[in-house]
Specification:
It is a single chain. The protein is mainly α. The protein has two domains: 1-147, no CATH class; 150-244. Helix content is 73%, strand content 0%. The chain has helices at 2-18, 21-33, 37-48, 52-61, 65-76, 81-88, 96-116, 131-146, 156-174, 184-203, 213-243. α5 (65-76) packs antiparallel against α7 and α9 runs parallel beside α11. The radius of gyration is 19 Å and the shape is globular. The two termini are 28 Å apart.
Length: 244
């Protein structure tokens, strides 16, 4: 999810900037060159480092654990800058709830990977599909959802991808009789809870601001769907663990 989100965001940004005339392209470049050298270096770093989520994903599934751990830890670094920038620069402090929730989502995922896939752990594997197909499916879902009228922020596409993936996992789990993936439901429930926190944190500051009904309705609907999925995943995961 993190890897696909980083790739899709950048592909869509480049596509939009390069297909809407010189003015839009110059506006895109000004984010990197129009605020001085230090700010430009920070912007380039924030733009490039999240792509290492993709390196971490494929490295893990090819049993390159050291590379995977290093990649995801470096990829998570940009989420700390909004919290640190107001302390060392004149930048305006971001919305604290959103910045904190986004950092938690990235760092808990990265640290979980580092703890779980140690030297003696079994090789990582996906329950179905090849890594490339799963990755491309996530990219397609996120890219398609990002062009919908209610896709007003950066949380929409990852949350939509998670919702579809979690629903698919629940349906797949219902067809299985073994409990070999007993931790899957709990892991997805924790991930969903983190995403729900990011979704609420992104929506909360805009509740008092007039916005199109389709955007507000879509965000509130996403909150409800994520909440229901978290409960369902927790129940299924808890039963699987108890049975095991």
């Amino acid at each position: 999810m993190q890897a696909a989100s980083a790739v899709v965001d950048r592909v869509l940004a480049l596509t939009w900037a390069s297909s809407h005339g010189p003015t839009q392209w110059n506006l895109f470049l000004s984010d990197f060159t129009g605020h001085g050298l230090p700010a430009g270096v920070v912007t380039v770093t924030e733009w490039i480092l999240p792509l290492l989520w993709t390196v971490g994903f494929f490295a893990l599934l090819h049993d390159r654990r050291r590379l995977a751990r290093a990649s995801v830890l470096i990829a998570a670094l940009p989420t700390l800058w909004p919290l640190l920038a107001p302390l060392v620069t004149t930048s305006v402090a971001p919305e604290p709830l959103f910045a904190t929730a986004s950092a938690l989502l990235a760092w808990l995922a990265a640290l979980a990977l580092c703890v779980a896939h140690h030297r003696d752990a079994p090789q990582a594997s996906l329950p179905f599909g090849s890594p490339g197909i799963v990755f491309m499916a996530c990219c397609v879902v996120m890219g398609a959802s990002a062009v919908l009228p209610m896709a007003a922020d950066a949380v929409w596409a990852p949350a939509t991808c998670f919702a579809l993936g979690a629903l698919g996992w629940l349906l797949w789990r219902a067809r299985r009789t073994d409990h070999g993936t007993a931790g899957g439901g709990v892991a997805l429930a924790v991930l969903g809870l983190l995403l729900l926190a990011v979704r609420v944190a992104a929506l909360y500051p805009w509740l008092d601001v007039p916005m199109p009904a389709v955007v507000l309705g879509g965000a509130l609907g996403q909150v409800g769907v994520l909440a229901l999925l978290v409960v369902a995943l927790a129940v299924v995961g808890g039963r699987d663990l108890a049975t095991r």
